[in-house]
Amino acid sequence: MTLHRLAGKKAPESMLENIPELVSAYYTLDITGPVSFGTSGHRGSALKGTFNEMHVAAMAQAICDFRSEKGRKGPLFMGFDTHALSIPAFRTALEVFAANGVETVIHEKDEYTPTPVISFLIVTHNRNPKNQPADGVVITPSHNPPRDGGFKYNPPHGGPADVAETRWIQDRANRLMEQDQNHIKRIPYQKACAVSTTHKEDFITPFVKALDQVVDMKAIREAGVRMGVDPMGGSGVHFWHVIAETYGLDIEIVNPRVDPAFGFMPLDGDGEIRMDCSSPYAMANLIALADRFDVAWGNDPDYDRHGIVCPTGLMNPNHYLSVAIWYLLQHRPLWRSGLKIGKTLVSSTMIDRVVKDMGRILYEVPVGFKWFVDGLLKGDLAFGGEESAGASFLRMDGLSWCTDKDGFSAGLLSAEIIARTEKTPAEIYENILVPNHGAPFYKRVDGPISPEQRQVLKDLTPESVKVSSVAGLPIASVATTAAGNGASIGGVKVTLGDGSWFAVRPSGTEPKMKVYVESFGGEDLWKRIYGEVHDCIFNR
Fold first, then answer.
1. What domains, with CATH codes, occur in the chain?
2. For this structure, is 279 an active site residue?
3. Which residue among 86, 119, 142, 347 is the active-site one?
4. For the segment 440-474, what is each residue's pLDDT rounded down to a tens digit?
């Protein structure tokens, strides 16, 4: 990818989204694309006719039908983030849920609600066996640009829905849009707010009060850790002052603004406004303030990701995941010894080496946080993390916290690490993990994908790779399924003799091909491996 000339700089006015036009398109443009649930729900843009009123109404009705099919009568917790299309979509969905008699619980005062909060509420409600099982919906396109909208369903386990569930909802929604629109029940929004099945509750207080069960807030307070938080215009913006006041923490919110155009954001590397907290370009504002704090972090709009900034700069997500695992396995004495540590197979091998060194079991799965849900819920999986800067881990007593990615606890954990070790996560990585386990060079490259390439990746088997070496290194293994659960990875991962590896897979949310390469021989070896990936996979 060629770096955009304005990467890391504030977007000029001419590049900002026309929000009135975008919202108008949500209500007026015809459907031009079907509902398609990728790894994180359906995403699209009203301007392209891929996320508009009918899409949302159909998805909401499909969820009502799905709940009916499963006999689910418990409450549905619903939240939305700060994207411009999220509020219109929230209103459309509530109109459908209310018309179908679904007990819907929303944040009082129409507040924004982060993804991990919805997951926490579902898990907490369902912990009581006397309660009818709850589920939830989060209206968010995550870190996508301001023009996009998104819709996610979390079933009673609290995490992302699995493939079978999303396929059912997707197929039903598409049938409703194509031929059964008269089966979509709706009532006007004001009436939907007033019906007896719509309940407004405070989502902030219970979540904040429970945070000290997963992160050692007392240690952070007593150590006087100076923290900077950039909500990046996201749904957690009104949580941080409550967290700071509740626990007496030294937290400075460096940017409290909410703007559906996200006009305060620096442009990402490709020139898009994208609230990607793992990108040094999108995080440029906070990185510039790094020396004011012991540690700082940013989160994407729905708060399921984190970006940790130490005084030395933004940490690579893989580095922070490795440090978090290293730390947690030494400072959670109530966690039982048999717990597994989860990682996606495109996350760094540094994690594998840390887990092995700590005498624990690695659980490697395909891309998608849904693969960690069952283990986190049952308390069999201590930690689940993915290379795109998403993670969740158990409470200090070993019980489940939330079963979706949680940017709140991941950020606060970085402060706990400083409080208990007197070292930043970056210092631990460089001075402890690297000397013991090596210094991998990791980078992902996204590019276009053709229909032919997508089909090749879909049909790949380990035997499809005919070469015996890459960049002069022998191929140690070729995998099209994950070692932890045997599930298809939707592409291929090739591991080389020195521990270096590469993986290729299509994106689940965008028309892109993702190439991941990790070298244990520095950047030069990384370049040689990357240079041979295409021929190894596609020229056979």
1. 15-202 (3.40.120.10), 207-437 (3.40.120.10), 441-538 (3.30.310.50)
2. no
3. 142
4. 999 999 889 999 999 999 899 999 998 999 999 99
